[in-house]
């Protein structure tokens, strides 16, 4: 009887709650208003011949490389950052190798690592979710072949200091070190320049978050040119579709649109943090486009927010995140709606006595 590999049979299933997402979508860290109008205009101009041809990514890769300030051979466009993670696992992991992650973090690291047959070593973050740089370095062995670090991290929004990332890269010269910068635009600091000192460091970027192109599945992986040749060997030549390739240059060209959106998200982030602090609801300072907050009965909180037209994400199953929800931020008008619903929900559920009594959450 045909059966899947043992490593596949034991994989945890990832079930994103995508069905029935009616309401203001603050649950998946997407851009809440959408992409640049220039992208929409390019979509309208797409012709039948463009869709009939196999996609050619080389010219767009050169465009993206120039935008990121890297050499074209150092960059590969991918079908979202998920494919970049998968490609690194396929390129560097053998069954029985060790792969390191700091938890809680993005679920797909573990899944792709396990699918390759690797033993995943999960290093717990501190109680305040600060990056466990010292402990992670201690767990590096001769069997360590891949280390994945989200910076800023998901679902916490916390960051790994640049000196820690460099220290890890030096401590694991035989391992690929992925720095996943999916939320870079909301943070502003990057390993792109420093990674040139390390042939084993890869930096991933996405166009799903600030750029509003999650539906087109676009990511970029940057690394040492020689290492990227190996990664390209396991990558399909047609991994990024023609529609995505046509739209990406337009998205990159409208940096004013991105900067305005990011600025409003940062403002909304500060408003939400002030409101949570005033209410006595525990949260963690974030450098991404979301806030993680501990509300107690997370499922009930999510349902009450849904009834008020706001979708937020239950993260209770993540390591150390019991009773927590993750709330994505958008522009000012979305923050207004969020904070109104939040004030009502906190009061109704009595999450904190002070917030319920004083109505401390104000839009």
Provide a descriptive summary of the structure in words.
This protein is 42% helix and 15% strand. The chain is of the alpha/beta class. The radius of gyration is 21 Å and the shape is globular. Strands 2-8-7-6-5-3-4 form a seven-stranded mixed β-sheet, with helices on both faces. Helix 5 packs across helix 10 (225-233). The chain folds into two domains: 6-30 and 256-358, Aspartate Aminotransferase, domain 1, CATH 3.90.1150.10; 37-253, Type I PLP-dependent aspartate aminotransferase-like (Major domain) (Aspartate Aminotransferase, domain 2, 3-Layer(aba) Sandwich), CATH 3.40.640.10. It has helices at residues 6-9, 37-45, 48-52, 58-68, 80-92, 107-115, 133-138, 162-171, 184-187, 225-233, 242-253, 255-279, 298-307, 332-349, 353-358; strands at 24-25, 75-78, 98-103, 119-124, 144-150, 176-180, 201-206, 219-222, 282-283, 290-294, 310-311, 313-314, 324-328.
What portion of the residues fall into strands of 2 or more residues?
Answer: 15-25%
- The termini sit apart by 60 Å
Radius of gyration: 21 Å
How many helical elements?
A: 15
Corresponding CATH architecture of the largest domain: 3-Layer(aba) Sandwich
Short description:
With 363 residues, this protein is an alpha/beta fold. The protein has helices spanning 6-9, 37-45, 48-52, 58-68, 80-92, 107-115, 133-138, 162-171, 184-187, 225-233, 242-253, 255-279, 298-307, 332-349, 353-358; strands spanning 24-25, 75-78, 98-103, 119-124, 144-150, 176-180, 201-206, 219-222, 282-283, 290-294, 310-311, 313-314, 324-328.
């Amino acid at each position: 009887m045909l059966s899947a590999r043992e490593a596949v049979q034991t994989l945890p299933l990832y079930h994103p709650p995508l069905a029935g997402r009616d309401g203001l979508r603050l649950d998946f860290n997407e851009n809440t208003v959408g992409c640049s109008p220039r992208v929409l205009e390019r979509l309208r101009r797409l012709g039948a011949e463009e869709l009939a041809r196999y996609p050619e990514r080389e010219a767009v890769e050169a465009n993206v490389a120039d935008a990121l300030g890297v050499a074209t051979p150092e960059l590969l466009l991918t079908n979202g950052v998920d494919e970049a993670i998968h490609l690194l696992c396929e390129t560097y992991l053998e069954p029985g190798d060790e792969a390191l992650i700091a938890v809680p973090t993005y679920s797909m690291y573990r899944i792709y690592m396990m699918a390759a047959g690797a033993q995943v070593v999960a290093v717990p973050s501190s109680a305040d979710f600060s990056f466990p740089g010292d402990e992670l370095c201690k767990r590096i062995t001769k069997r360590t072949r891949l280390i994945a670090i989200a910076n800023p991290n998901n679902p916490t929004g916390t960051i790994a200091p640049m000196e820690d990332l460099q220290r890890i890269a030096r401590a694991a010269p035989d391992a690929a070190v992925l720095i996943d910068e999916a939320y870079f635009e909301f943070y502003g600091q990057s390993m792109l320049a420093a990674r040139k000192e390390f042939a084993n460091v890869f930096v991933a970027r996405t166009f799903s978050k600030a750029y509003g192109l999650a539906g087109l599945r676009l990511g970029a992986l940057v690394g040492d040119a020689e290492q990227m040749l190996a990664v390209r060997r396991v990558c399909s030549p047609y991994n990024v579709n023609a529609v995505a390739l046509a739209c990406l240059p337009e998205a990159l060209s409208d940096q004013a649109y991105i900067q305005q959106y990011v600025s409003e998200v940062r403002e909304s982030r500060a408003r939400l943090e002030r409101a949570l602090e005033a209410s006595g609801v525990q949260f963690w300072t974030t450098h991404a486009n979301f806030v993680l907050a501990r509300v107690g009965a997370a499922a009930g909180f999510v349902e009450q927010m849904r009834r008020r037209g706001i979708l937020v994400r239950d993260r209770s199953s993540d390591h150390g995140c019991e009773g927590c929800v993750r709330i994505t931020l958008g522009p000012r008008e979305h923050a207004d709606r969020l904070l109104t619903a939040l004030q009502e929900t906190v009061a109704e559920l009595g999450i904190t006595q002070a917030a319920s009594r004083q109505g401390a959450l104000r839009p």
